[in-house]
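My current task is to audit a protein record that another person submitted. I need someone to confirm that the token line plausibly describes how this chain folds. Take the sequence as given and treat only the tokens as open to question. This is what I was given:
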Amino acid sequence: MDFTVSLTAAQICAMLGFSVGFLWGEAFSSFDQQIKYNSEWFRRLTPFQQWFVSSLLDAFHHFQYGLALMLLALTVPCPSWLPAWFNTLVLWVGWGLVVSDWKDYRNVFKRLGLSLKESAEG
């Protein structure tokens, strides 16, 4: 039985990049949650210190890193010493980070007393 998969370099970059970005994002989210909700160290902090650490973790989300990677991939030419598909890979890693972090952003907005309106379509 023959089984052939025909993928372009761009398709492979998209799948690999997105999956790496998404899984990195999930690892970052897990680390963030462990610090804020399961860490004995965090519980021993004063309320102000807890607020400060939580604010830092909320402010430096991988959402921003993903957008920065996407911006770089779209605006900075790929150096000649890297393969031509490198920027495509970086773009998709960034997109994976952005998608992974969306649920965390919803939690941050909720914690701050802000709301995100759901669209009528979804």
Notes: Helices lie at 9-38, 40-43, 47-59, 62-75, 86-111. The two ends are 43 Å apart (CA to CA).
